[in-house]
User: Fold this.
Amino acid sequence: MNELPLTAYFYLASLLFSTGIYVVLVKKNAVFVLLGIELMLNGANLILVAFSKAAPTLNGQIFAIFSVVLTVCEVSIALAILLNIYRKHATSNLDELQEIGNE
Assistant:
């Protein structure tokens, strides 16, 4: 069975990261912005695991698992904040929330 070269992982990680940046910059809904951040972190985790595959140690995989745990905590707190904002202002559009903050 042929193994994928290390550059294939780098291309996939850069595609994930670039897609995440695009989503964060273009979308106006807060949920989509969180999804874009998630894509960027998954791209970084893929790089960590690819480096761990190339080296005989498990350091990259340990950092990737630690990053996933931190990401889950970050997203759960961000969704809780977003739900409270939605209850108060009835919108999750970031442009409208910025206008509400200036009043």
